[in-house]
């Protein structure tokens, strides 16, 4: 039972933490580089937390999430909290260094794995446990951050990853089922709740996003057990179980029945699916995630209020909230002085979303009079957005409507293979790379000089051409068969295209944490996508002019551009994907006309957008594949289409990979020992495939023998006629010396295996 009966009306589920000007990124990286000490890192972090807590308090949230700050990642924080670090890391004495070693590794200690957080582009550290892991509570961080917040007069609600999600996302090193350990964690969570209550917390938030995935009956039983037991704990704060990123379905009544005081439901990602079940909540506080925590659009107030009112009128106790943590959106619009005013009026970043939560709660609980002005501004903005002509460009819509099946198919793969082989005359086991070459200091300096206006476009182009010429010469000298231009002109594989397409806008400070100190700045896709001019043709044809060998044209695919942008929410993503695909298709046609014989369309984010519920997956895969095929079927059958996929567990999308129908697919495989090839065989895949033969995430140069062994292994699954030889991914984060050495070994290994 909780200490005292309390309630609240307005909150968010978590806050961004990297700093409005990426202060934490700089502090952490300076600490890693030995330029500042731990005290300075703590000072910067405390200042960021104080600013954020007081701003949420002053904005009028009557319950404020606390402890969503992290030096690196909240799953890693939870592993520390539960004493679940592997022994190799525990051997490091200093607490902070041990923490960062777990995240990033050291010379001698391998880091924990990292993978994507549900269907977002945020990466968490994967806890490593085994049947023998002895959990123990280390509550210093949540307790300290709670005290800090209470001292500031903040109505603090500590946020902790819940036991089910923690275990579901953990991996075991001994094949045991992580969820078997839930019984060991419950008492630790019980103790933690008691200590938080003792320290003055009235509420605690246990994050359980795993509850929006398909759970087995045994897993559901575990959920019920965990929360029944925790709810029965004496002397504890009130418990909010926070779910997000999808619909709960039958898990909602199950949770409510356990006796926890509140459940957070995501009414953005989950739509209205949980509305009916939510209406029958009696007693449980419904934390209604109605303000989109993952996208940047200002809320449309009337439909939102209608849904909230419906719940309230059904007798439900409702608090208004963001749909998930605000970790996934930028801090504040006020920094965006360069954005067009009209577009800016349509947007809400973190601070603005907190305001939206506040006035929606006021409108719901106290009537609309007190917030009439906020409501009017929001209504006007939404109306203005929908009236903007850039959201409906007739030419694009007409062209898409006129396309039929004949426009998106190619000849059978076998026919294409013959035509392409005649045109290209490549050897068996052709060698190539994934696209980017090292982004040298020289390239970054040129880009910065161009951004500051110190050099003009012509000088910038001259410098980029010099880079291209060097990379082409290097590849010729190494003896690769299919060359690339090296992508020096691209800051980022999505932003580069977004900057050249109409319908996108770029932010100045819209940084979002991707992992650790790494941030991305997703473009805002607000309108219909139009390609005013070719985007890559000059660079590729310049590269091709330098060599008789084929140079691959390099494009980013529609699904990846969609996944790594803030996307318009006024039409289904499938429609937006088709528009992007059309622009990419036009680019492939122009590349082909300029003499490019091979075009690669990268889709590294294909797996990321896969819906969390199995029932939703076929529909997604159908439109994602269709978009890729639309983008790649405008070229002749003699033009070879490549794609590249990475950062993924391919299991669930293996069928879709085949349906992409790319002539050649390069795919991350080095770390998973080529297992993906067996998976492809199992579904009868018979197109070209380039399983990455070495891992580019490490600076280590692979030996000829190692690569030879990888290739021999690949040949057990793939006939030589279909096998390509390439690294796992692009080389932009590596140094030139190691790249050159690695690729020489790759070419030598291919030659050795061809002999055989
Ligand atoms: N062509 C891109 C590169 O080589 C692909 C990057 C990626 O897979 N994320 O950098
Ligand atoms: Zn890749």
UniProtKB/TrEMBL annotation:
Gene for this chain: metE_1
Residues binding L-homocysteine, per UniProt = 434-436, 487, 602
Tell me which residues this entry annotates as catalytic.
697 (proton donor)
Query: Which named protein is this?
Result: 5-methyltetrahydropteroyltriglutamate--homocysteine methyltransferase
Q: What does it catalyze? A: 5-methyltetrahydropteroyltri-L-glutamate + L-homocysteine = tetrahydropteroyltri-L-glutamate + L-methionine
Q: Write out the residues that bind 5-methyltetrahydropteroyltri-L-glutamate.
A: 22-25, 116, 121, 518-519, 564, 608
Q: Which residues are recorded as binding L-methionine?
A: 434-436, 487, 602
Domain Cobalamin-independent methionine synthase MetE N-terminal: where? 10-313
Q: In which pathway does it act?
A: Amino-acid biosynthesis; L-methionine biosynthesis via de novo pathway; L-methionine from L-homocysteine (MetE route): step 1/1
Natural source organism: Nocardia aurantia
- Function comment: Catalyzes the transfer of a methyl group from 5-methyltetrahydrofolate to homocysteine resulting in methionine formation.
Q: What is its EC number?
A: 2.1.1.14
């Amino acid at each position: 039972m909780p200490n005292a009966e309390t309630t609240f009306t307005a909150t968010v589920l978590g806050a961004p933490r990297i700093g409005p000007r990426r202060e934490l990124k700089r502090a952490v990286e300076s600490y890693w580089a030995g330029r500042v000490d731990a005290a300075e890192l703590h000072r910067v972090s405390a200042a960021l937390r104080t600013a954020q807590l007081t701003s949420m308090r002053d904005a009028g949230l009557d319950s404020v999430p606390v402890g969503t700050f992290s030096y690196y990642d909240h799953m890693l924080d939870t592993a520390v909290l539960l004493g679940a670090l592997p022994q190799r890391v525990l051997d490091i004495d200093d607490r902070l260094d041990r923490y960062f070693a777990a995240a990033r590794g050291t010379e001698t200690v391998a880091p924990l794995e990292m993978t994507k957080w549900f269907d977002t582009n945020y990466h968490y550290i994967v806890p490593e446990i085994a049947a023998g892991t002895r959990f123990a509570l280390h509550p210093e961080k949540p307790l300290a951050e709670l005290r800090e917040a209470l001292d500031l007069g903040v109505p603090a609600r500590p946020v902790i990853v819940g036991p089910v999600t923690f275990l579901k996302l953990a991996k075991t090193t001994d094949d045991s089922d992580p969820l078997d350990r839930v019984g060991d964690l419950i008492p630790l969570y019980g103790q933690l709740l008691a200590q938080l209550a003792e320290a003055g917390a009235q509420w605690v938030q246990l994050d359980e996003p795993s509850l929006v995935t398909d759970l087995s009956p045994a897993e559901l039983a575990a959920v019920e057990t965990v929360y029944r037991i925790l709810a029965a704990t004496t002397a504890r704060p009130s418990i909010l179980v926070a779910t997000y990123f999808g619909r709960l379905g039958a898990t909602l009544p199950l949770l409510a029945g356990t006796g926890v005081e509140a459940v957070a439901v995501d009414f953005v990602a989950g739509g209205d699916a949980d509305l009916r079940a939510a209406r029958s909540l009696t007693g449980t506080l419904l934390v209604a995630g109605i303000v989109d925590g993952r996208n940047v659009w200002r809320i449309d107030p009337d439909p939102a209020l209608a849904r909230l009112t419906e719940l309230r009128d059904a007798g439900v106790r409702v608090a208004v909230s963001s749909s998930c943590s605000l970790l996934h959106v930028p801090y504040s619009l006020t920094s965006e002085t360069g954005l067009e005013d009209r577009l800016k009026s349509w947007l809400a970043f973190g601070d603005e979303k907190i305001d939206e939560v506040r006035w929606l709660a006021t409108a719901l609980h106290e009537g609309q009079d007190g917030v009439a002005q906020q409501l009017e501004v929001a209504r006007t903005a939404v109306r203005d957005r929908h009236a903007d002509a850039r959201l409906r460009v007739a030419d694009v819509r007409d062209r898409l409507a006129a396309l039929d099946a004949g426009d998106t198919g190619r000849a059978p793969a076998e026919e294409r293979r013959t035509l392409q082989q005649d045109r290209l005359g490549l050897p068996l086991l052709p060698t190539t790379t994934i696209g980017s070459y090292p982004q040298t200091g020289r390239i970054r300096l040129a880009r910065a000089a161009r951004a500051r206006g110190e050099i003009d476009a012509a000088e910038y182009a001259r410098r980029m051409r010099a880079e291209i010429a060097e990379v082409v010469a290097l590849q010729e000298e190494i003896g690769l068969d299919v060359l690339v231009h090296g992508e020096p002109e691209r800051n980022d594989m999505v932003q580069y295209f977004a900057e050249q397409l109409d319908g996108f806008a770029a932010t100045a400070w819209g940084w979002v944490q991707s992992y650790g100190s790494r941030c991305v700045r997703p473009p805002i896709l607000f309108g219909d996508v139009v390609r005013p001019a070719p985007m890559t043709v000059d660079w590729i044809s310049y590269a091709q002019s330098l060599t008789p060998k084929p140079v691959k044209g390099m494009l980013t695919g529609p699904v990846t551009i969609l996944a790594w942008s803030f996307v318009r929410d006024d039409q289904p993503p499938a429609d937006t994907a088709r528009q992007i695909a059309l622009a990419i298709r036009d680019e492939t046609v122009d590349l082909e006309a300029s003499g490019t014989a091979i075009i690669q369309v990268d889709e590294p984010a294909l797996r990321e957008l896969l819906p969390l519920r199995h029932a939703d997956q076929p529909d997604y895969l159908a439109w994602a594949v269709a978009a890729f095929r639309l983008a790649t079927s405008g070229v002749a059958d003699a033009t070879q289409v490549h794609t590249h996929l990475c950062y993924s567990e391919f299991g669930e999308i293996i069928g879709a990979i085949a349906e992409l129908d790319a002539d050649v697919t390069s795919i991350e495989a080095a770390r998973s020992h080529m297992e993906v090839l067996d998976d492809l065989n199992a579904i009868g895949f018979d197109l070209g495939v380039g399983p990455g033969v070495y891992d580019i995430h490490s600076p280590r140069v692979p030996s000829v023998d190692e690569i030879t062994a990888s290739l021999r292994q690949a040949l057990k699954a793939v006939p030589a006629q279909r096998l390509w030889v390439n690294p796992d991914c692009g080389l932009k984060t590596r140094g030139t010396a190691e790249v050159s050495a690695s690729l020489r070994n790759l070419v030598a290994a291919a030659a050795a295996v061809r002999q055989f």
